Amino acid sequence: MDIKFMSPLNKNDLVLILGGSGLVGSALVRAFKAAHYTNIIAPSRRELDLLNSNEVSSYIIGKAPKIIIDAAAKVGGIHANNVYRADFILENLAIQNNLFKAALAAKVPNFIFLGSSCIYPKHCPQPILEEYLLTSELEPTNEPYAIAKIAGLKTAENIKRQYGLNYFSLMPTNLYGVGDNFHPENSHVIPGLIRRMDETIKAGSKIFKIWGTGRVKREFLYVDDLASACLFIAENKVDEHFFLNVGTGEDLEIGELAKKIGELMGFNGTYEFDTTKPDGTPRKVLDVSKIQKLGWKAKVSLHDGLVKTIDHFKTSAKLRVC
Ligand SMILES: NC(=O)c1ccc[n+]([C@@H]2O[C@H](COP(=O)([O-])OP(=O)(O)OC[C@H]3O[C@@H](n4cnc5c(N)ncnc54)[C@H](OP(=O)(O)O)[C@@H]3O)[C@@H](O)[C@H]2O)c1
User: Fold this and answer.
1) How far apart are CA 35 and CA 111, in angstroms?
2) Which of 17, 24, 62, 210 lies 20 to 30 angstroms, CA to CA, from 197?
C-alpha cells in the first residue's frame, strides 16, 4: 500500500494557500474551511508578490506554515501562452522557485505543487498515464508554460528525494467553475463558451458558431473536485508516487459540450461549425486510475458543474474578466 491514512496535518495547523484570488486558490480556501481547518492564510499579490524572492523568503520563514499549496501561476489560454512565451516561462519558474527555496529554508514539511495536463507530450497515447511524461515533444504553443510546470514537479520530486520532505505535485486536467475567468480572449473553453453563448442569445442570433469540426474530445473537472483532491493529498501521505493526474477520466466532444451549455442557457438556435479553423489534438483525457486507487474520485457531474458555473456567470456582481 502506498498511502498512509494518517493526517500529517492538524485542523489548527497553518495552511498557506498561494493564488487565493484565482479559480483554484479560491476553491482551495473554500475546501479547507469546509474541512474545519481554522488557520488558513491566502495572501493576495499586493500582500505578497511571488516574483520578489526576498519578500517570499521572509514571509514564509516568518509564518512557518505546516503546508504550502501553490495555486499561483501565470495562466492563460492558447493565445496568451503562444504570444507571451517568455513571460510564461520566466514568471512561472520564478514564482515556483521562490516558493520552493523559501519553503526549504523554513523547513516547511508539506508542499503541494499544481502542474497541468499540458506537461504531457503532444502525441501521447490516450488516456494519458503519468508514465508518458518526457517521452516525446510537447505541444509547441504552450511549451514554455509546460516546461516551467515540468521543472516545478521535478523540483518537488527532488526535494522529496534529497531532503525527505513531503513535497508532492498534482496534474489537473482542464478546470472550470465558480471563480472562472470569462474574458473574451484569455478564457478557457467552458467560460469562453458560456460568455459567447450569452452574447449570442442577447444579440437575438439563432446561430452559435464553433471553431473547427466540434469533434475533438476534451476532459473537464469542476474546480471544487480539484480542491478535494488537494485536501486528500494533504491529509494522506502518498509515498509511492511523486505526482498524480487529477481528472474525471471522461471526455466529450466540444460540439456536444457547446450544445449542453446552449440547452442550459436556453439557446434554441442552431450550431455552425467553422471547419476552416484548426481542430487541435483529436483527444485529450487523463488516466486517473492511480489517484482513484488511492481513494479519491471526482464527485461533481458535468451537468451540475455547468449549472453552477452558468449561475455564477449570470449572478455574480464582480466577474473576473482579466
Ligand atoms: N484553470 C485551469 O484549467 C487549470 C488546469 C490545469 C492546471 N491549472 C493550474 O492551477 C493553478 C491555478 O490556476 P488558476 O486557473 O486558478 O489560475 P488563475 O485563476 O489565473 O489564478 C492564478 C493566481 O495566481 C496569482 N498570481 C499570479 N502571479 C502572481 C504573483 N507574481 N504574485 C502573487 N500571486 C500571483 C494570481 O493573483 P492575481 O489575482 O493578483 O493575478 C491568482 O490568484 C496553476 O498552477 C495552473 O497551472 C489550472
Assistant:
1) 18
2) 24
